[in-house]
Amino acid sequence: MSLPISTGRIQSSLRKFLDNEASGGLVLMAVAALALVVANSPIAEIYFHALHLDIGPLSLLHWINDALMAVFFLLVGLEIKREMLDGQLSTWSRRILPGAAAAGGMLAPALLYIAFNAGNPTSLRGWAIPTATDIAFALGVLSLFGNRVPASLKIFLAALAIIDDLGAVLVIAVFYTNGLNLLALAGAAAVLALLYGMNRMGVKTLSLYIALGVALWVLVFASGIHATLAGVMLALTIPIKTTPGAPEARDEESLLHRLEHKLHRPVAFVIVPMFGFANAGVSLGGTSLATLADPHTIGVAAGLFFGKLLGVLAVVMMLVKLRLAQLPATANWTQMTGVALLCGIGFTMSLFIGLLAFDDPAVQDKVKIGILLGSVISGLCGSAVLLASKRKSIGRTS
Predict the structure, then answer these.
(1) CA-closest candidate to residue 298, choices 163, 152, 129
(2) FRET label pair with 185: which of 27, 104, 174, 271, CA 20 to 30 Å apart?
(3) Which residues contact 197 (CB under 8 A, 6 or more apart)?
(4) pLDDT tens digits for 272-302?
(5) Are 204 and 239 contacting, i.e. CB atoms less than 8 angstroms apart?
(6) What does residue 86 show for φ and ψ, rounded to 5 degrees?
(7) How much is the CA Rg of the chain, to the nearest whole Å?
């Protein structure tokens, strides 16, 4: 069963989403490279010192990772809700292929990481790091091929990454939450109930949702659950107007669509690049073969490259062979292999989970190196396979 391509405004909305994510991914690549250069330059000390400057109750790094990234998670939540209720994932037939591929693409990397770190219980906290696919980075690479890659494959990759993000959110909520403050948690639950009540009563004043969202963030931050999850909680309460079998509601009619469109550009071009610049900078001065062979580094890199490829491709092949699904329209197996490799680009969410999993800066640096290695190799190999697919198709038609 092929992944259908919507028509009308849904297609237009999806195209804007893909364009924003792809363009943001290209910016993210440049920013990540800049962070590496700065972290290994004469101004490296200034760079690392600035990140730990206190601004009010938090350091600059924590403001970026805990507060600004809550806005990123708000957008992730909005995208998940829209796609599930009124988009490419609104029916089970559309969810089967990307959903199963996302599950395989999370399980295989986790198992590979565990295999490399089985002897160290502390290291096993990082099992979820290679399970994430960076939607912006991956679509950014895919966008470089223009119309040489079928639109159905871009939709498949976007759908897979959105479901992958949902999995990552659940993983963070369940496995990376420490000692709970029950009073703050009760307060967060009360605010969430109020937001839900506003939704049910048809309240469409965006400023009210945002104001209560800020209060929700403060309470979640104090509760022990990672504060960024407040963004997802808020997203689930934002009203959406669904139009089954018809084009999407106009922006002015649907609060969710309006907020999502407002957030796309600042998140893609400001917040995520800031996060990338603040967290991708790792000093390579002390890097050695021992560092590259460290179980943290190799477990993450192998999980992203081999795990994502095997997990995604194996599931897709199984579903197609069992006739439970079909390849995306006009795509071939070589192109699907290239996209499966691009799923190994796990930059933003992998970095985020790595920071939650380990407090030791030395271990964090090893994880970052593994993420960079796995993501770069996956991106290069995926691009090479897609280029080879193009040449092969030209050869057949000439």
Answers:
(1) 129
(2) 271
(3) none
(4) 899 989 988 888 776 777 778 899 999 999 9
(5) yes
(6) -150, 25
(7) 21
For residue 55, give the 3-state DSSP assignment. Answer: strand
Q: For residue 363, which amino acid is it?
A: V
Residue 87 gets the label, from left (phi > 0), alpha (psi -120 to 50) or beta, of beta
Q: In DSSP terms, which residues pair with 58 in a beta bridge? A: 55
Q: Which residues of 226-262 are buried (b: 16+ CB within 10 A; e: fewer)?
A: bbbbbbbbbbebbbbeeeeeeebbebeebbbbbbbbe
Q: Is the pLDDT of residue 85 over 80?
A: yes
| Residue 106, both tokens | 């999370």
Cβ atoms 275, 348 nearer than 8 A: yes
Instruction: List Cβ<8 Å contacts ≥24 apart for 288-296.
Output: 291/366, 291/369, 292/369, 292/373, 294/366, 295/116, 295/117, 295/120, 295/123, 296/117, 296/123, 296/126, 296/363, 296/366, 296/367, 296/370
| Residue written as token pair 């396979």 | 385
